[in-house]
Automatic annotation (TrEMBL):
GN (gene name): Prl3c1
PROSITE patterns cross-referenced by the UniProt entry: SOMATOTROPIN_2 (PS00338)
SUPFAM superfamilies hit by this protein: 4-helical cytokines
GO CC field: extracellular space
Family: Belongs to the somatotropin/prolactin family.
Name of the protein described by the UniProt record: Prl3c1 protein
Keyword Metal-binding: yes
Length: 212
C-alpha cells in the first residue's frame, strides 16, 4: 500500500508553529557571552545530544513508514553536502568543523519547517521535530562561535555548499518531495551524530574533570 504523507495545513499546526518559534526565540535571545568556557561546553553538549536524538527519530520514522524506502536506499544518491569537510584534530579545528557543518545546515533547516508543514504536518509529530532541530542547530552554531572567538579570534568561515535538492522538498510530486525528505533526514542524522561525537571530544579537552 502506498503511503500518502501530504496533508492540508491546519489551524492547529500553524498555532503550534508560531508558539514554538516564539519559545525558541526567547531561548536564543539569552546571551551566552557571560558564560564560562565550561558552561558553554556543557550547554553545547546538552543541546547537541537532544538534537541528535530528534534528527535520528525523524529519519527512523520516515524510513520505517515509506513503502519505497528500499528503493530510496538503493538509488546510490547518498552523498551529503557536508561530506567534503576534513577530519579535525586540534581543539580549534573541532570548533571550526562544528561551526561549518551547523552553518551549512542553517538554510536547509530554515526551509525544512514550511516544507514539513505542507507535506508532513500531521505525520507523527514531524513539524514539532523540524522546529526543534532547526533551533537546536542555531543554538549550537551561536555558542560554538563564541567559544572559537575566545580560542582563535578572527576565524573566517567557509563558503558553505548548497543543498542541491532544496526545491524538491516543496515539489507537488509526491515521489519527488518524499525522496528529498528522505535524503535530507539521512544526512541530517549523520551530521548531528558527527557534531555530537566531536563535542564530546571538545568537552573532554576543555573540562578536565569531565569523565570521558
Amino acid at each position: 500500500m502506498q503511503l500518502t504523507l501530504t496533508q492540508p495545513c491546519s489551524r492547529k499546526a500553524l498555532l503550534l508553529l508560531v508558539s514554538s518559534l516564539l519559545l525558541w526565540e526567547h531561548v536564543i535571545s539569552t546571551s551566552d557571552d557571560q558564560r564560562s568556557n565550561e558552561e558553554l561546553s556543557y550547554k553545547l553538549l546538552s543541546i547537541s545530544h537532544r538534537t541528535r536524538i530528534v534528527a535520528r527519530k525523524m529519519y527512523k520514522i520516515l524510513d520505517a513508514k515509506l513503502s519505497k524506502g528500499r528503493w530510496f536506499k538503493k538509488s546510490g544518491n547518498n552523498t551529503c553536502h557536508t561530506a567534503s569537510y576534513p577530519t579535525p584534530k586540534k581543539t580549534e579545528d573541532i570548533l571550526k568543523l562544528i561551526i561549518n557543518v551547523s552553518s551549512a545546515w542553517k538554510y536547509p533547516l530554515k526551509l525544512l519547517t514550511p516544507a514539513t508543514l505542507t507535506h508532513l504536518e500531521s505525520y507523527d509529530g514531524m513539524l514539532a521535530r523540524a522546529i526543534e532541530v532547526k533551533y537546536g542547530n542555531d543554538e549550537i552554531l551561536a555558542a560554538a562561535k563564541i567559544l572559537l572567538s575566545r580560542i582563535q579570534p578572527g576565524f573566517k568561515e567557509y563558503i558553505y555548499p548548497k543543498w542541491p535538492e532544496l526545491k524538491k522538498l516543496r515539489s507537488s510530486n509526491e515521489e519527488t518531495h518524499l525522496f528529498a525528505f528522505y535524503k535530507l533526514f539521512y544526512c541530517l542524522r549523520n551530521d548531528t551524530q558527527k557534531i555530537d561525537r566531536y563535542l564530546k571530544i571538545l568537552v573532554c579537552r576543555i573540562i578536565k574533570t569531565y569523565k570521558c
